[in-house]
Amino acid sequence: MPKRHTWLEDAQGLLSGVLLMALAIQFFKQAGLLTGGVTGLAFLLHYTTHWAYGLIFFAISLPFYLFAYRVLGREFTLKTFACIAGLSLLADLLPRWIGFARLDPLFASIIGGLLAGVGILMLIRHKASLGGVTVLALYLQQRFGWRAGHVQLGFDLAILACGAAMVSTPQLLYSVAGALALNLVIAINHRPGRYMGM
Description:
It comes from Chitinibacter mangrovi. It is found in: Cell membrane. InterPro entries: UPF0750_membrane, YitT. Pfam families: YitT_membrane (PF02588). The longest helix is centred in the N-terminal third of the chain and has 24 residues, at 7-30. The protein has 198 residues and is mainly α. It is built from nine helices and no strands.
């Protein structure tokens, strides 16, 4: 049986994962791109309402806590709540600390996708997530053996299709590239027979 993480290892892993995801969001937002999952739904609402991204992300994540508690347990749900709250705060604070004078959208999509994938992977390995689609993907992997990265990619592409009318065709294609980069990280590194942390 694998050795459990200490509370200090969990704290470091969760904080690192949230920071990487917050940075990924800045790359996507600065380039005017979309992404999948609850993060992508928050982008769609942010672009249409101009409300604070972090507040939207936090609010639309709330319904997933009950599902997470029922299928993945109390520890996972509490850690996930902490990660979502942290990301909601950092997503709105980070623009005060970092900006891009020049940002190529293709680079933004790939680096944003890789950062998000690594961040999510770190959270998964410390028994947490950013809610929403990731919770469902992890459940389906545990229950049926479906790869979490493949499940998440399917949902992500559906969300990107919903936002297709909001961005230009190049931005949509860059957004799809980012979703592929993100989900390849998860599909390759989080699968049965590998260290999964769950």
